[in-house]
């Protein structure tokens, strides 16, 4: 699911226009610019029956849209929401039964730029999605 959700975002024109290929899971590669999208798997659960685990999974994914300017973080968040909220279909080996935005929030933080004394402010729009999915048979 992770690779295919990333592919879905990379293929979205609005996300690509703002973040390019800067969409990654877990952390932002060092030295990569902004704006950028970071994906985090918060939780994933599968049902179980007498025959074992069910194919359908229910995941919660946090999508953080980072930028050096608030309006860019917000615009990227809107582009991500437009690409994912309500999406259903097959991407790669994953059948997305439904992707639904559940929450959103804006924050900012200050960090030292390039490990030096220069300080920069980063802006973040975070979106929480419920992702119902299952892997397709090869």
Structural commentary:
- By secondary structure, this protein is α+β, with helices and mostly antiparallel strands.
- The protein has 3 helices and 6 strands.
- Strand 2 (36-49) and strand 3 form a beta hairpin.
- The longest helix is centred in the middle third of the chain and has 15 residues, at 70-84.
Described by the principal axes of the CA atoms, the overall outline is elongated
Let me know the number of strands: 6
Count of DSSP H/I helices: 3
Fraction of residues in helix: 10-25%
Biggest sheet strand order reads 1-2-3-6-5-4
In short:
The protein is α+β, with helices and mostly antiparallel strands and 138 residues long.
Write the layout of secondary structure elements.
Blueprint (H helix, E strand, L loop, with lengths): L1 H10 L1 H7 L3 E3 L10 E14 L2 E16 L2 H15 L4 E3 L2 E19 L6 E17 L3
Parallel strand pairs: 1-2
Antiparallel strand pairs: 2-3, 3-6, 4-5, 5-6
Helix pairs in contact: 2-3
């Amino acid at each position: 699911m992770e690779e295919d959700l990333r592919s879905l975002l990379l293929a979205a024109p609005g996300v690509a226009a703002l973040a390019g290929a800067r969409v990654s899971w877990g952390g932002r590669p060092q030295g990569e610019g902004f704006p950028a999208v970071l994906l985090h798997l918060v939780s994933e659960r599968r049902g179980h029956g007498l025959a074992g685990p069910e194919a359908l999974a229910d995941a919660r994914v946090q999508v953080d849209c980072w930028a050096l300017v608030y309006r860019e973080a917000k615009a990227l968040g809107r582009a991500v929401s437009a690409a994912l909220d309500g999406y259903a279909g097959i991407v790669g080996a994953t059948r997305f039964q439904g992707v639904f935005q559940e929450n959103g929030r804006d924050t900012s933080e200050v960090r030292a730029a390039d490990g030096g004394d220069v300080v920069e402010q980063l802006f973040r729009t975070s979106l929480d999605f419920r992702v119902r999915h299952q892997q397709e048979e090869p």
